[in-house]
TrEMBL record:
Enzyme class: transferase
PROSITE patterns in the cross-refs: GGDEF
Catalysed reactions, as listed in the record: 2 GTP = 3',3'-c-di-GMP + 2 diphosphate
NCBIfam families the record matches: GGDEF (TIGR00254)
EC number in record: 2.7.7.65
Every GGDEF domain range: 204-339
One biological process term in Gene Ontology: cell adhesion involved in single-species biofilm formation
The protein's name in its UniProt record: diguanylate cyclase
InterPro entries, A to Z: Diguanylate_Cyclase, GGDEF_dom, Nucleotide_cyclase, Rev_trsase/Diguanyl_cyclase
Domain of life: Bacteria
One cellular component (GO) term of this entry: plasma membrane
Species of provenance: Terrihabitans soli
UniProt-recorded Gene Ontology molecular function terms: diguanylate cyclase activity
């Protein structure tokens, strides 16, 4: 896959070659899941996976196939998130219990110190010189004990705070992974649904783009799923290059993408959509296994803007109608909800 500069092609080839080199070096079978572990390691997109691999390599110098299976299940498998959330949640609860216990200990030490001072205060009123000396010594011992206890408590609280921060970062990383599509690295459908509900509840202007790759099924059937994955990543790259920081781009499902443009009305949203369409059309697709030039990919895009009475279903339905009006009108085009083509859209979808 190339876009003139060849950056995507060169970068991803380097990642792939690095994965293959490690598979050879450790004599692992080149199963897709093992390749995915090493490819992800090469990209550094998943720091928790990289740290886990580095820890095993540092400890044992190599990884077994069983190690990689376990790493895949922990860091890449779609089913990993509930378990990891539970694990981190349990550790956080343990740290909180530990901190509460330390505070109880500190409170007990303070109460004991206060009792000692009260006792000294009562005794000192009618004490002679020798008794005063003994009282002062007792007071100094109590003060030293209190200082020591407070020092230990401070060290323990600092350690617990650091552990809590680490657990928080880990939880945030797991959350980010759970809301990201692993193939395209765009947001996934779950995150899109949440973001759309938030945009609707805010009640501020925004537009929705729904994108579909033209003839993707026949293309996928003809050239295979690996090349189909290249196409999905190509479109994802074009989307990322043409949206702003506040915009939300997601893989909506299969070969469909959806983009939420906060603060953007219909006509500016159409302009953004056309930039994405042109960016995709401007990239050449090359089959990596053979170097065969497969030509150019095109996409169709439907655009709808927020209406005050919208819910998620209504705005998606309008954007969807626009998308399939674009398909019917010849594909490789952008259609918005005010365009005349939308009135002629039938119920059946076009690939």
């Amino acid at each position: 896959m190339s876009d003139g500069s060849g950056d995507d092609f060169e970068r991803t080839i380097v990642f792939g070659e690095s994965a293959i080199e490690r598979i050879k070096a450790y004599r692992h079978p080149a199963y897709p899941r093992i390749y995915e572990v090493w490819y992800t390691y090469a990209t550094c997109y998943n720091p928790l996976l990289n740290q886990a691999i580095n820890d095993v390599l540092k400890k044992r110098g190599s990884l077994s196939e069983q190690d990689l299976d376990a790493l895949y299940d922990m860091h890449l498998s779609a089913s990993r998130f509930p378990t990891r959330y539970d694990e981190v949640g349990t550790k956080i609860r343990e740290e909180v219990d530990h901190m509460v216990a330390m505070l109880d200990k500190a409170r007990g030490s303070a109460d004991e110190y206060s009792t000692t001072l009260d006792s000294i205060n009562k005794t000192i009123e009618d004490a002679d010189k020798d008794k005063i000396k003994a009282i002062v010594e007792m007071l100094m011992r109590a003060t030293i004990d209190m200082r020591s206890t407070n020092g230990e408590l401070e060290d323990q609280l600092i350690t617990s705070r650091e552990e809590m921060l680490k657990l928080h970062d880990k939880l945030e990383a797991i959350r980010a992974e759970s809301l990201t599509d692993p193939l395209t690295l765009l947001s996934n459908r779950k995150f899109f649904d949440m973001a759309l509900e938030k945009a609707l509840s805010d009640g501020k202007p925004f537009s929705l783009l729904v994108t579909d790759i033209d003839h993707f099924k026949s293309f996928n059937d003809k050239y295979g799923h690996l090349t189909g994955d290249q196409v999905l990543r190509l479109v994802a790259t074009a989307v990322k290059q043409n949206v702003k920081g506040q915009d939300i781009a997601a893989r909506y499902g299969g070969e469909e993408f959806a983009i939420i443009l906060p603060g953007t009305t219909l006509r500016p949203a159409v302009t953004v959509a056309d930039h994405i369409r042109r960016a995709v059309m401007g990239k050449e697709l090359v089959k990596r296994s053979t170097g065969e030039n497969l030509g150019r990919v095109t996409i169709s895009i439907g655009v709808a803007s927020f209406h005050s009475n919208d819910n998620a279903a209504t705005i998606i339905e309008r954007a969807d109608m626009c998308l399939y009006a674009a398909k019917r009108a010849g594909r490789n085009r952008v259609v918005c909800e005010t365009d005349p083509e939308v009135q002629n859209t039938g119920a059946n979808r076009v690939a």
